[in-house]
Amino acid sequence: MGFLTRSKETAPCTVTISHRFEELSAHVKFNNGAVVNPGDSVLVHGAEIMAPYGEVVEEDRTATITRASKLEQLWTRATGDFEFMELCEFSFSEEVLS
Amino acid sequence: MNAQSPLHSADAATAEEAIAAQDALDTPMTSEKATEVAMQNTLLTPRFYTTDFDEMDAIDVSPVRADWDKLINQMKSDPNKGHFKKNEDWDTVDWDGMEPALKAEFIDFLISSCTAEFSGCVLYKEMKRRGSNADITTLFQLMARDEARHAGFINDALREAGIRVNLGFLTQQKKYTYFRPKFIYYATYLSEKIGYARYITIFRHLEAHPEHRFHPIFKWFREWCNDEFSHGEAFALLMKTDPKLTESFTNKLWIKFFLTAVYSTMWVRDHQRPLFHEALGVDVTWYGQEVFRKTSEISKQVFPFTLDIEHRRWRKNLDRMEAASRQIAAAKKRGGVGGMISRVVGMAKAATAFVSVLTIPAIHNAVPENPRLQPAY
């Protein structure tokens, strides 16, 4: 990892979406043991995934992990904590009605 | 625009029937499915987190083992398993008859609730997956279960209103942010406890004034917030495993910051939903103070002080923050140089008010040896 430079790597991943009455959840799991660090970005390739209502969908995909530079990582470590408000139901959500 | 099927999930007697009714919408291409496609899309945008997993794995719950095991076993027994089902109490909602402005605020409330539950689920699942301390991963697994269940329940209510969540974020670039473990404890503890206080206050109010219950989801709030209460209990115990977390000078400052930030955000946000509170028959200022009172009382189990919410600078500056937030929103909309200046001025006003609230002397509290509480409101 460079101080100012980013690097990229690809990783196989499994995306699991539960779109059911009893559970709404979505998770991405890397299958090669890749670990995401503060400031890294992840892009899952392919078309948008959405399970039909009442179903759980699991898809194997490829993801690109963009590794943050050391500087970015330090910055994220120092400031990430302030995004905690999102856990509150009354947070200012960024949802977009389209 | 509500999707109609022969048996609407709202009329179903059991969860299975409700699911079957909703499933019917998703099977072959029918006119119902066309309606589904036409549903309004709302994009959920949760954040993704990492933390110091080694530090989290190093937690030793031995000092609170007896209470810990009791709480985890209670959560494992899943007392609310059967609660999140639509039964005969789920009245049909007259979405079309609802005043549009109220509908917009209420839907905004449902969406932000759904996002919060969903984000909690993402965070907890990540902690569960990457941690290796069995006590901690079990807790996160159980909490992820509850949050996903709550999110599913709200999602169903949104679908009835013709709103479909969009999980498109999954295939968009996601940046992973960072939470220090201790901040996860403070923030999660507070968000769960204040969530409990908010839901139970509305539930008790509507129990006394059922004529204001304009949507059946409020009937589910009591058991729902008991989940939030238990989650908060677990974090209270976690904070008890290391006295420094609540007793060191720096950490006390952090706790004060978290309390002030959470309380003032809630105040500002709630005041932006006037019609929603009016429909509930709730005075939003009374509601805010009441939720703070309950949360402060509960937080005495673990925090060495409470905020002085009766201080003369308290409400005055919360109101200033709210006014500043309106100014910022209006300036953002306006754009241009004038908008930019107005926005910066608004932000300065908000920051000044925040500092004024943050510097109100706190009220000392002698923390009890054993933190465990039962939901009592």
UniProtKB/TrEMBL annotation, chain A:
Protein's recorded name: Uncharacterized protein
Species this protein is from: Sulfitobacter aestuariivivens
UniProtKB/TrEMBL annotation, chain B:
Catalytic reaction annotation: Mg-protoporphyrin IX 13-monomethyl ester + 3 NADPH + 3 O2 + 2 H(+) = 3,8-divinyl protochlorophyllide a + 3 NADP(+) + 5 H2O
Alphabetical UniProt keywords: Bacteriochlorophyll biosynthesis, Chlorophyll biosynthesis, Iron, Metal-binding, NADP, Oxidoreductase, Photosynthesis
UniProt keyword Oxidoreductase present: yes
GO molecular function annotations of the record: iron ion binding; magnesium-protoporphyrin IX monomethyl ester (oxidative) cyclase activity
Listed pathway(s): Porphyrin-containing compound metabolism; chlorophyll biosynthesis; Porphyrin-containing compound metabolism; bacteriochlorophyll biosynthesis (light-independent)
NCBIfam families: AcsF, PRK13654.1
Protein name: Aerobic magnesium-protoporphyrin IX monomethyl ester [oxidative] cyclase
